[in-house]
Amino acid sequence: MEQLQAWITTLVDPHLVGEAVMDWGGRIFGALVIFVIGRMLMRGLTKWATAGMRRVGLDDTLSRFLGNLIYMALLVFVGITAFSALGVPTGTFLTIVGAAGLAVGLALKDSLSNFSAGVMLVFFRPFKVGDQIDAAGTGGVVETIGIFNTVLKTADNRVINVPNSLVYAGTITNYNAESARRVDMTIAISYDADIPQAKSVIAAIVAAESRVAPHPAPEVAVQEVQQTAVMLAVRVWVQTADYAAVRGDLLERIKRSLDKYGLSIPAAHRAVPPAQLIASK
After folding, report:
1. What Å distances lie between residue 171 and 26, 120, 136, 200, 240, CA to CA?
2. CB 31: neighbour CB atoms within 10 A?
3. What is the pTM of this model?
4. Alpha-carbon distance 57 to 116, whole Å?
5. How far apart are CA 187 and CA 265, in angstroms?
6. pLDDT tens, 214-225?
7. Exposed, middle or buried: residue 30 (CB in 10 Å: 0-12, 13-18, 19+)?
8. Residue 32 near residue 92, CB atoms below 8 Å
9. What is the mean pLDDT of residues 85-89?
10. What are the pLDDT digits (tens) for 181-224?
11. HSE-up of residue 28 (Cα within 13 Å, Cβ side)
12. What is the structure's pLDDT at 116?
């Protein structure tokens, strides 16, 4: 009993408690300072490294991806340093981290799959930041190729995060991979319209458009004869950046010119059964 009382007295000794509080308080404060200042420094170092990679010629996509990897590596280093300041043995901590990493890796195999797919996307480069793509059932302009996700921004300003594994495993359509694209349009004219005249009118409009490339030469040809109209195919080559603007402008001009010469297809009229005509009266 006396030994228990002596142990309790020693345990609650103000001097010992004060020393313990000062000791652990200093360790915790030091660890927090290391972590906060370390994060600030590693952010600056990551930005500096990313800018340096761009200056030596690496494109924006690869620079951002490697910058993310550098940031994650520095974050682990700062975390280990902060734990060391608390008095946690580094070797023991690394052993714990390794065991935990194995368990987490098994639990997060999908995330590891996304990471490996991200590495493949960066180094095989089927697209880069700024390209317009269709992938994994969605489309948009590539904002970021991250460690786990690819971020797309749609034309109506929606931001879509797509897992890298889905992007890499599926079909990827890159609309900016080549400097030129072909604009395909289908124009309908009536059966009574003069086909050579319609082709001549369309060809003149295409020739007057300065953004249309002369080679390969523009094409205007009969594509199909349907029950209600003759379909003309119009094919022209433009710079990829001008695709949408040229297509819209040409369609508008062709429509106006065909209407002017009476060559456009008349509006479809729906046959109304006699019973409906009687009911309407």
Report:
1. 56, 14, 7, 39, 21
2. 19
3. 0.61
4. 24
5. 9
6. 999 999 999 999
7. middle
8. no
9. 68
10. 999 999 999 988 999 999 999 999 999 999 999 999 999 999 99
11. 6
12. 85
Determine the Cα angle at 189 with ends 186 and 191, to 5°.
135
pLDDT over 70 at 167, yes or no: yes
- Rounded Cα distance between 37 and 17, Å, is 30
For tokens 């490294």, the residue is: 49
Residues 6 or more apart in contact with residue 177 via CB below 8 angstroms: 127, 131
Distance CA 167, CA 122 (A): 12
- 8 Å CB contact between 163 and 112: no
Q: Is the pLDDT of residue 235 over 80?
A: yes
Peptide bond into 163 cis (omega under 30): no
Closest CA to 193 of 269, 259, 249: 259
Residue 102 identity: L
| Domains, the chain, ordered by start | 2-107 (1.10.287.1260), 126-174 (2.30.30.60), 180-260 (3.30.70.100)
Residues forming a β-bridge with 222:
232
